[in-house]
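Hi team,

Below is the intake form for UTP--glucose-1-phosphate uridylyltransferase from Folsomia candida. Please confirm the fields before the structure is written into the shared record.

FORM ID: S-0412
PROTEIN: UTP--glucose-1-phosphate uridylyltransferase
ORGANISM: Folsomia candida
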Amino acid sequence: MEWLGLAGTNKALPKMPSNRRAGSPSEAAEFTALTKRDSQMRVEAELKELVATCPEEDKAGVEKEFEGFKGIFNKFLQSSKTSVDWPKIEKLPEGAVRDYKTLPSPSSNEIKEMLSKLVVIKLNGGLGTSMGCRGPKSVIPVRNDLSFLDLTVQQIEHLNRTYDADVPLVLMNSFNTDEDTEKVIRKYAGFKVKIFTFNQSRYPRIDRDSLTPVAKSCSANTDLEAWYPPGHGDFYLSFCNSGLMEQFIVEGREYCFISNVDNLGATVDLSILNMLLHPTSGSKAEFVMEVTDKTKADVKGGTLMQYENHLRLLEIAQVPKDHIEDFKSVKTFKFFNTNNLWINLPAVKKVVDNGTLDMEVIVNHKTLDNGQNVIQLETAVGAAMKCFDGCLGINVPRSRFLPVKKTSDLMLVMSNLYHLRNGTLEMSPFRMFPSTPLVKLGDNHFAKVKEFLKRFQTIPDLLELDHLTVSGDVTFGRNVVLKGTVIIIANEGNTINIPDFAQLENKIVSGNLRILDH
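The structure came back. Fields below:
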């Protein structure tokens, strides 16, 4: 997190004692402390004014959300140092990360009982705007006209029907996605899946200079830009506040499996659940993070570290600038966080009730449409790992990390690289390599889903593809086959149309349609 100078205060500050020379360290520290206290007081007063604009029936809920906001805002004010002390990072202890292949499979007569202890939670707060779509990202069609949400419901229903179980699906929505999601899930009424929803908090964006909320009313409809959902680290407080966690604990459920709704590889894994419920030694783990082997594409992603005698998530924002290359090293940090998490529900309740939830604050800089510079304070769900006992990493196959963030990812999951079975994408047995190809599509012509789909008569055969780069005005005909490394570059003003049934293997296609061996 970048420390922001606290500017824009207009209240008079107490005079500094005259026996200290101006600009001394002690004087600067006192000035900073006074300014922080002033910011806290002003924010507290403005939040009360915002609550006063709420309908009476909403005030209690808003006040509870604002308590969470005040906590993250005060931590932001106090945290002048956010990077870890690099020399304190220790080598991961023996057994801190278990190999997925060593996990025993449960016996078939245990599975129904095991599933009665599980809740599946999908993080569903994001919009599809980055891919040019309106509404929740989870309703974007990704395969056979089925959306992320359709596939998730299919997966859980198949699990419940196969084992006569009743695993519930819980969606953590944001105020941006809640209304549309509630409409969509009505179509699943006939499925053997109980679907619950709750909303993550709604926090006010902060003016970067004055450090005060830009919102003037609690009504998000009148000024949508003034509000934001504060990252998936808000899960813990919002889940508790919703009453759902208490309900599931009373039902005897012990673990929740949390993942991003756009990660098509994040399915319920019975071997991991078996390990959690039937540990071979010691007590049950409270927090398990699925990690996978880091590749060059993942060098900026979070990883695991041992720090102050505890297993913790390390994000690039916490890394001192002179150690960025160390952080990116695949040799130093072998694992990459998939954000697939298994967390003990009673342990979540204990951490929240005891007030010991502690996550690093992420400062996200934004510019509103009117040019106003704001910040929004967020947290990441995996950062709470350090608050739990018995933490563990599991090194899972890459197939459990299949996110769709860009149309290049969408191209992969729509292709013949995968078969769809009961809502789950499985790598084709005809793919010779377990890894997926590296695909880079130019932003100007391929970034939006609608534009992307127009450029393919059919998605090419990618079974033997290693690397694809496409830039410029390029279209693909039907039944194109791409193998090895293929680079297609249409210069500005040029158009390249790859014809039907073309087979490109280790080729460079340039702006004048010359096809060269790579």
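SUMMARY LINE: The chain is about 25% helix and 25% strand.

Thanks, M.
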